Amino acid sequence: MTPTAQRLMSLVPGLHLPLPEHLDSEAPRPLRHRKGPGPCEHLRQVAAIEHEGTATGVAVTDRFVAAGENAQAPTVTWSCAEGEQWLLRGSGIEVFRDGTKSLELTWQSTAPLSVTWHDPVGPPPGGLPNPAFAHGCVEITVLDSAATAESANPAETTDTADSAAVTEDGAPDVYEIRTEIRSREFLYQDWGLTPEATGWRRFLGEVPVNYYVDPVPGAEHAVVVFSALGPKGSFTYNYKRSLDALPAHKIYVLDDFGDQGAYFHSHHRHLGIHRSVLAALQAALLDLGTQPDHTHTVGSSKGGTAALMFAAELGAATVIAGAPQIKIGSFLSSPHPNILKFMTGGTSQEDIAWADDILRPYIARLGDSTQVTVVIGDKDHHFRDHLPVLQDMVHGTGAPAPRVVTLPGIDHAGIGTPFRQLMPQLLRNAIGVSDVSTYELEGWQFITSVTGGQVELQMVSPANPRTPAAVYLVQDGNAAHKVPYSPDSRTLTFALAAGRQSRFRFFVKEGDSRQTLSTPPLTGAP
Known about the structure:
Layout: H1 3-11, E1 29-33, E2 40-51, E3 54-66, E4 75-79, E5 84-89, E6 92-97, E7 100-109, E8 113-118, E9 137-142, H2 145-148, E10 173-182, E11 200-204, E12 208-214, E13 222-226, H3 240-243, E14 249-253, H4 272-288, E15 295-300, H5 302-314, E16 318-322, H6 328-332, H7 337-344, H8 349-356, H9 360-364, E17 371-377, H10 381-385, H11 387-394, E18 403-407, H12 416-430, E19 435-441, E20 444-451, E21 454-460, E22 469-475, E23 478-486, E24 490-495, E25 502-510, E26 513-518
Parallel strand pairs: 13-14, 13-15, 15-16, 16-17, 17-18
Antiparallel strand pairs: 1-2, 2-3, 3-10, 4-9, 5-6, 6-7, 7-10, 8-9, 11-12, 12-14, 19-20, 20-21, 21-24, 22-23, 22-25, 25-26
Helix pairs in contact: 7-8
InterPro entries: AB_hydrolase_fold
């Protein structure tokens, strides 16, 4: 083995790469030439990855040249070593040994991919025994981008029966898979997801899907929570603490595709991600015994978009979306072109238009039994640029018009806190365990949620100006509880006395003036 190969091998302890003796990291050389009908030439180049001048891993670039029609599908296989535990991600692998993360593989490509895990006891790739695959392996296969590109409308997908391995000008198709293998400076942030973490499940569809299930014994309803957009490499669930007390099963789905997510939808316009997520959720709901009319989808921002997208296919009764993106391409084009490119294959105006139309076919299939609620701030550009598009899409579908909860003074960056406060109450109302009412006074929103002998009050302040508000809980005409003036949002819980008429009285100060509002008697009170 050459010194170059030895140096690259030493960068990542335990790395098993089929490096040829003549390896030259500066120029690609043939690794093997695939045989069979329509051969596919395969070349591999290996180079160091450096971070701030320090070597942190290796980058392996596999280049495939399809030399004729019916070319063999370009494939890269990574084998698991003895003693390793692998955690499959949508676009990578985390490798653990003795409970500690030791390696990380992430890949990107010039065409859509399928990802297949082969168990040690299952047939290896090609059906031939191979000691390298004795502990399991992952097979990454290129799907011809021209043959698999699909309309944003899944009902209008391109015919994929004939895979063209030669372009129209007669030149062979060229595909690349770049796999980065790191021993430090990992992309995936540690959010507690490991091969042995309890509650986590993995669905092996066209691509792997990771999700967390929080079952509640005896529950009839289930809530599917889609994760919002996070920093690169940060894939975790949202709103779990807010929903822990909800008497319903919870399913938290990760969007760990690419380096920052794919709206649970597509890779180079191929909808394998969407189909895999849908199949995973259908299997999880079946396992929980939840019927479609007892299924509810929720999420904010990107998660709200996904909640809308999957509602019709799951037959969900309720969608609660916080400031969702409707024109996905337009939203991604400037701040997140990496996500747009992963989803569509590019960042052109045509790619933007394709992504802008993603939601339309899913919204068109909403039924008259699905109630959509959008929680959104009136200072959020989504209020102006996205909400009217959603309302237009829903109009004429037979579904009820979206209910809009408007948050005065809230922009997109501020949606998290009020959505976290409002969503549990809206869900309690949807599953029939409470009665929710919303009142507005001088920019403040007061949301009451009655469950049994208790009432929970959400006081949501306007962001600007921050006028103070106070509240009385009045029982039989007397103030049983007084909450002093404050400009801050608050969550309060009160006990309701049986046999006494209860209502709230809200007060808002604005300068020297004071505005008041009294609620009707609290519905559902004992």
